[in-house]
Structures are given as C-alpha cells and as structure tokens.
C-alpha cells in the first residue's frame, strides 16, 4: 500500500483523535463570558480658567470597549479621545457629567456632579462654591465681638492677613505669643516684643485684644518646670509674672485667660498635677485670679478649657472651678474645637446655660470645626462643606441667643484652613475654618452669618 493510501486509511483515526481532543478540550475548557468594564474618570479645574473642566478617562479593562462622554449640557454623546478632554461650563448650574463605557457584556457609567457659580469664580472645586456674601461678620454680629487669632510674624508681614483682621473681625487673640513660655523665657528676663506687636496692632486698629493665656501647663518655660527655688519663691515668681504682665497691658488687653486647661481629661477630671499645683497648692487658680484682679480691676478674667461641650463631666468640673472663684472670675472660655458632626447642639447649649445661670460671661474662644475628623476625605466635598456650614450656623445661633449681659466674643481659631493647628495635631488634611487656603470665603462663612439671623 502506497504511503499516500496509507495516509487516507489512518486519516479518519487522526480526525477522530483531534475531534476527541477537541471534545475533551470542549468538555474541559470553561468559556468565560465577557464582563462589563467599569467606567472611571477623574476631573479637575483648569488652572488658567475656572470655567474649564479637565476630564481624564481612567477606565482600564481587557478586550474591546468604547468610551463616550455626556457633559451634562445636552446634545449627543461624545466619543472619548486620547488624552484630556477640556470642556467649558460658562453658565451657572449643576451638571451631571457621565462617562459611559460599553463592551460586549454591556455598559457601565461613572458620574460626577459639577456645580458652576460664576459669582464664586466659575466651577466650584469639589462642588464647594465659596461664599459670595459681602456681609461683614463684625458688622452683622451687633451684640458680641467676632474674633480670630494672629501672630507677630503675620502682623509684621501685613497683606491679606492683617487686611482681613481689620475688615472683618473685632477682636484678636495671640495664637501663642502671649503665653508664659514666650513672654518669660528665663527668670527675671521678660520678652514682650511679640506680645507688644500684637497688642499694638489691636490698639492701633481699634480691635479688641484678648490675652491668652497667663498660666498653661503646655506653655510653661523649662526654667519654671524645673524651678530650683522653694515653693514660696516659686509663688512669688508667679505673682510677679502675672502682676508684671497684666499691668503692662492694662487698658490695652480687655480680657485674659488667667488659667487655661487646668482639668485632667481622666475620670473625675481632677486638677492637672502641673508645676503650679505642685508648688502652690490646689488653690493656685484662685491665687492667680486674685493677682490678675489686683493688677487690672477692669480686665475681664476667664478660665479657659476644651471639651466643655463634648464632655458633660468635664463641663461640670469646670463649673466647680467657676463656682469656687466667685467674683474673682468674670467669664468662661469654652474653646469649641469641634467637628461637623459633634458635639450636639444640646451639649453646646449646656455650656451656655451653665455659664448664664451663674451670671458669668461666655467666650467661645477657639472655634474650629473639623470637616474630616475620621480622615475619610481627601478633598473638602460639597456635602462636608455644607455640613460644616450648618455647624457654624448652629454654634453661632446658640451663642447669639444668650442674654446680652452674658455675651463677650466668639473667636475662630484660625483664618485660613492651611494655617490651622489641627493639621499638625491630627496629622492629616482638614478644612476647619471659614476661609480656604487662598483667603476665599467658604460656605462656613455663610453659616456664621446665618447663625446671626
Ligand atoms: O513660630 C515659631 C518658629 O519661628 C520656630 O522656629 C518654631 C520652633 O520653635 O516655633 C514656632 O512657634 C510655634 C507656634 O505654635 C507657631 O507654629 C511654637 O513653638 C508652638 O508652641 C506654637 O503652638 C501653639 C500651641 O497652642 C502652643 O502654644 C499653636 O500654634 C496654637 O494653635 C495652640 O493653641 C492652643 C491654645 O493656646 C489652647 N487651646 C488648644 C490650642 C491648640 O493646641
């Protein structure tokens, strides 16, 4: 049999083998149906034109798929082109921008909302339209002072910081330079240069100055912490420091936080075991208030502390201090370092009620409102900005509702978000204040004003 014929004799067997193989392959192979590819895009605002949106298709997947844009401005879908799409949004409004990705398995959509407010500059970053309210806080708050903090370096630099303090605020607090560690760096050696710059700025511009803080365990110079003299000598030194400082600013500094944060956070909130308590006894607070009162009988004297709203037990301990001081104390400083989602209005109201019921004045002394307490945001979204706005409104409304005789000031602890102490303290991004990094008013500014209505 020729080779040729032999081939045809075995060909059926070969075909059968292949088909079996195929059948085995057919039986063994799992055919995976195509799956949808998730549409994904990122957007940003042109750095040169706030009415131009930059769209970047970030969709990834295997196999063929098509991407089409719906810019939310009507009209047909637009096929995605390689690179960044630049889209103009000239008219005020809220737009739904969608990317539709289609493959054999069907389509998926990624959708983002774009808000345009041309009075706020055009497209609102992350849906947060700045405030366009031209009302001035200090003018709108007719029955109490509206404050912010400052530093000698910022006063010396001038510019938008001092412009804004002069235009918008009616009281200032030194963020850190009127504390003992700055004013009294070594025994017998006072350094009032920074404090003078701040006080003179206030006096020269008709802005109230609140002194913060004469005694604070966190701003005590090392030489005091490690004081080598006797307890009696220590007490005499503290009396001299308070008398010298309050006398220096008599008639210029309207109020002082005489003692700041004397209470522990632990159960029962005992007095912190500061060097002042150790060397002067539990009644060191009363002694400090007496010395301040003696130095300037016209100066309003405050006790200042934090978590007054969030901790009812610490609040009660604070009011015990107030009660123990009698007429030596004029007011309560509740710092109000809070968040967009707490503490509750009722707890904030309790601070006001307890102060008013004692006939004392109230200073919300260090208000900032975290929009990112759980570090779950990388940008300030419209939702968070509006929640923060509502909390500013709530706090201001509570303060503005207390009786005139109990009002003093509401001080915000910082001008621009990026200057807030909170960023370093918590180690993550947040936007706790009323102005963004470029001194643009945020919705929080409107919240403050709405709280005054
Ligand atoms: O400006 C100097 C800089 O020149 C120097 O190089 C650097 C290192 O020594 O220090 C810088 O000063 C620091 C200042 O903040 C400005 O950043 C001080 O050391 C630092 O102690 C100071 O921290 C302040 C802190 O109180 C302690 O005084 C914060 O700004 C201030 O926001 C914070 O505020 C306190 C209130 O007084 C009381 N309630 C809590 C609140 C937050 O901690």
Helix and strand layout, with pairings?
Elements: H1 3-28, E1 41-45, E2 52-57, E3 66-70, E4 78-79, E5 84-88, E6 93-103, E7 106-117, E8 122-123, H2 137-140, E9 145-150, H3 152-157, H4 160-168, E10 171-174, H5 180-183, H6 193-204, E11 208-216, H7 222-225, H8 231-248, E12 255-260, H9 275-280, H10 284-295, E13 300-305, H11 312-325, E14 331-334, E15 337-339, H12 345-357, E16 361-370, H13 382-400, E17 407-412, H14 421-426, H15 443-451
Parallel strand pairs: 9-10, 9-17, 10-11, 11-12, 12-13, 13-14, 14-16, 15-16, 16-17
Antiparallel strand pairs: 1-2, 2-5, 3-4, 3-6, 6-7, 7-8
Helix pairs in contact: 8-10, 12-13, 13-15
Bound molecules: ligand G3I.
Helix content: 25-40%
By DSSP (H or I, 4+ residues per run), the number of helices equals: 15
The CATH topology of the largest domain is: TIM Barrel
Q: What is the CATH level 1 assignment of the largest domain?
A: Alpha Beta
Low-confidence stretches: 1-7, 13-25
* Overall morphology: elongated
CATH level 4 superfamily of the largest domain: Glycosidases
Total strands: 17
The number of domains is 2
Q: Structural class, please?
A: alpha/beta
Radius of gyration from the alpha-carbon trace, in angstroms: 33 Å
Mean pLDDT: 93
Question: What's the architecture of the largest domain in CATH terms?
Answer: Alpha-Beta Barrel
Q: Strands of the largest sheet, in order across it?
A: 9-10-11-12-13-14-16-17
- Biggest sheet statistics: 8 strands, parallel, barrel
Tell me the distance between the termini.
Answer: 110 Å
The hetero compounds bound to this protein are: ligand G3I
**Strand fraction:** 15-25%
């Amino acid at each position: 049999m020729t080779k040729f014929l032999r081939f045809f004799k075995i060909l059926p067997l070969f075909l059968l083998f292949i088909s079996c193989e195929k059948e085995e392959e057919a039986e063994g192979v799992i055919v995976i149906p195509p799956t949808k590819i998730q549409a994904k895009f990122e957007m940003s605002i042109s750095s040169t034109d706030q009415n131009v949106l930059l769209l970047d298709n970030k969709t990834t997947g295997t196999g063929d798929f098509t991407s089409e844009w719906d810019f939310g401005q009507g009209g047909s879908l637009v096929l995605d082109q390689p690179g960044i799409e630049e889209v103009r949004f000239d008219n005020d409004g809220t737009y739904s921008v969608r990317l539709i990705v289609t493959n054999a398995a069907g389509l998926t959509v990624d959708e983002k909302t774009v808000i345009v407010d041309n009075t706020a500059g055009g497209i609102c970053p992350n849906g947060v339209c700045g405030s366009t309210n031209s009302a001035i806080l200090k003018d709108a708050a007719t029955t109490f002072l509206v404050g912010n903090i400052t530093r000698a370096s910022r006063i010396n630099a001038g510019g938008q910081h001092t412009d804004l303090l002069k235009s918008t605020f009616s009281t200032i607090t030194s963020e850190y330079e009127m504390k003992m560690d700055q004013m009294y760096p070594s025994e017998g050696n006072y350094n009032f240069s920074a404090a003078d710059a701040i006080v003179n700025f206030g006096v020269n511009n008709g802005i109230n100055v609140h002194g913060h803080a004469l005694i604070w365990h966190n701003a005590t110079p090392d030489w005091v912490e490690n004081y080598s003299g006797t307890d009696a000598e220590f007490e005499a030194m503290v009396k001299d420091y308070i008398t010298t400082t309050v006398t220096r600013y008599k008639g210029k500094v309207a109020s002082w936080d005489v003692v700041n944060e004397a209470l522990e956070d632990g159960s029962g909130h005992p007095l912190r075991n500061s060097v002042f308590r150790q060397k002067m006894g539990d009644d060191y607070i009363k002694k400090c208030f007496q010395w301040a009162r003696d130095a300037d009988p016209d100066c309003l004297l405050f006790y200042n502390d934090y978590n007054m709203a969030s901790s009812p037990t610490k609040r009660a301990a604070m009011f015990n201090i107030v009660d123990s001081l009698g007429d030596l104390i004029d007011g309560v400083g509740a710092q109000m370092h809070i968040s967009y989602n707490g503490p509750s209005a009722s707890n904030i109201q309790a601070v006001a009620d307890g102060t008013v019921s004692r006939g004392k004045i109230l200073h919300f002394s260090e208000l900032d409102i975290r929009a990112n307490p759980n570090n779950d945001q990388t940008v300030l979204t419209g939702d968070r900005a509006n929640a923060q706005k509502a909390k500013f409104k709530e706090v201001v409304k509570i303060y503005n509702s207390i009786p005139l005789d109990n009002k003093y000031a509401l001080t915000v602890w910082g001008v621009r978000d990026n200057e807030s102490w909170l960023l370093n303290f918590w180690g993550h991004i947040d936007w706790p204040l009323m102005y963004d990094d470029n001194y643009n008013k945020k919705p929080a500014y409107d919240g403050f004003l709405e709280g005054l209505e």
